[in-house]
């Protein structure tokens, strides 16, 4: 048989990557390369005698080459003003992007230095610093007018797109789907009535600011994984941290950590009361967005065994809880 069977996703060999690394980068041998994790990207952990790096390879078709170049430009600008974010590693030829011709198409790689995760016990100062740094990132983006060609994190991305993505999996649950459509339209209208799509309420956002993408070196928060970045509502960018922590603590929005984060943010920019009032609505839409993201990941490189009625029972319940909180404001 001469033809090669079509693949939707391939996993790059750690051994082949290890062999290529010293050709591309000024890293000291011996090198250890391990497949570390998979999701929206494939992540490899690269260790040398004295250093540790993480190599991220995109999924084919997730973004375009210019999207990754823009991401690198933004990271370098934030590092230039000494805002703590993940540091990309420049290759010997002066570039940052590594293009791989995989069986399913072009994949883009970027090597990053390890981000230390050694948090201080001083949570109040740490989270105040986090809020301050998020506000500084937003402020810098407004000053420099960052170029970001990725899909905006607007109400289309938070309502219509995830509804389209999950529709095939809810054909047997028409009432649930109708509820998601009607309630998300209501939330979107509430947000449109409150917030204008202009600075400082709307602008460049990281898009995925949860605890898995922010490590603390003592009291210094270091932000990484800008894969979900785009232009969107700043209150959405803020809400993501509370959304994630609320899985473990349903009262997180009333807690000291969240209060410290907002206080730190407002040292740089005072939030409009309407932005604060929109947080629960954005958390609900974040939950809807997650359901759509999971449908997309399942179609790209994951199996379907977990994306079932039990999954939707849990996810819709969480969404409904935040929806009820938002309309009671």
Automatic annotation (TrEMBL):
Residues 41-269 form the Aminoglycoside phosphotransferase domain. Pfam families: APH (PF01636). GO terms for biological process: threonine biosynthetic process. GO terms for molecular function: homoserine kinase activity. Keywords: Transferase. Belongs to the pseudomonas-type ThrB family. PANTHER family: AMINOGLYCOSIDE PHOSPHOTRANSFERASE DOMAIN-CONTAINING PROTEIN, AMINOGLYCOSIDE PHOSPHOTRANSFERASE DOMAIN-CONTAINING PROTEIN-RELATED. This is Aminoglycoside phosphotransferase. It comes from Lachnoclostridium phytofermentans (strain ATCC 700394 / DSM 18823 / ISDg).
